[in-house]
Amino acid sequence: MTATGEVNEHADVADITILLTQRGHLTGWPTGMRVIVRRERPHPGARVAQDRLDDAEGYRLTAFATNARRGQLQVLELRHRRRARCEDRIRCAKDTGLRNLPLKTLAQNELWLQIVALATDLLAWLALLGLDEKSARVWEPKRLRLRLFTAPAAIARHARRVILHIKETHAWADVVIAAHQRLRALAAAPT
């Protein structure tokens, strides 16, 4: 299944628990655990991750263990992939400031956590609504800081308008300008 729940003809899902049990690879595992594997052919230009397995025919294999007894394999595998995206958001929140509590009192740190949550939400909305380049949408907070948030710019006011001047020689100026234009268009949309 794709992330939207549609059937993906180019991927296969299988439960290999019985195969691994027969070969003695699951001794000591809790009862009821299942091992599910997804096999798909990577699209051209896909980056090969170090933690992925590839078989002899060039398919990419992704395996996970679950104790869910019910549900179709495709639904369980899709749920696992969606959960991985949630864990990515948690990692991004840690990069945004969730990693430590820098203040002295509990009330101050509660406020800090609210600010971190707001910043994480803003980064997610920026990727969803502001960035139109597909590669820029998956940038982590560190890369966003390096490429977008450090772009040299100046704010000017003229005729009751706020104008943002971005230096066009910056390596990522086109992405910054496109994101700014998209977000301005959303702000000007009628409600």
If you had to describe this structure to a student in words, what would you say it looks like?
Strand 5 and strand 6 form a beta hairpin. Helix content is 44%, strand content 17%. A four-stranded antiparallel sheet has the order 1-2-4-3. A two-stranded antiparallel ribbon has the order 5-6. The mean pLDDT is 84. The longest helix has 26 residues, at 73-98. It has 191 residues and is α+β, with helices and mostly antiparallel strands. The protein has two domains: 11-81, no CATH class; 104-191, no CATH class. It has six helices and six strands.
Summarize the structure.
The protein has 191 residues and is of the alpha+beta class. The chain has six helices and six strands. The mean pLDDT is 84.
